[in-house]
Amino acid sequence: MLKNIDPLLNAEVLQALRAMGHGDRVVVCDTNFPADSVARETLTGKLLRIDNVPAPRAVAAILSVLPLDTFVDDAAMRMEIVGQPGELPDVQREVQAEIDRAEGKSWPMGSIERMEFYEHAKRSYCVIATGERRFYGCFIFRKGVVAPDGQ
């Protein structure tokens, strides 16, 4: 165990998040996402897991150590519902709350059409599968920078 590190962040996930550079993207996905096949096309080339927890809990753990990129408009993105791109299901509202909590302010997510989301995911640094069983529990986060003061 480590102090001040969420216990959901296993060694493989921590290593990937640490290795990512400014602007690299991490995908956090639900159980229905084609995680393994998409992960094989990412920079890490393998699927990472935070099992048995819903997406909002996994996102809270990840954002406890991963700063979001303040230089771009797409630092936090969600997969759009097919045919209803403006609708936000509960899982996305809950993840929005975790983003706002981690950043200490309102930080609205952008959205990506489903098939385009898959293409963005393939070009990401890594994919982290969660135990989220609700539909559209899929997100992409772009890593920001940590200032010299550690914030």
From TrEMBL:
Superkingdom per UniProt: Bacteria
Coiled coil location: none
Annotated GO MF terms: D-ribose pyranase activity; fucose binding; L-fucose mutarotase activity
GO BP, one annotated term: fucose metabolic process
Annotated Pfam families: RbsD_FucU
Reactions accelerated catalytically: alpha-L-fucose = beta-L-fucose; beta-D-ribopyranose = beta-D-ribofuranose
Keywords assigned: Isomerase
Name this protein carries in UniProt: Ribose ABC transporter
Organism name: Aureimonas flava
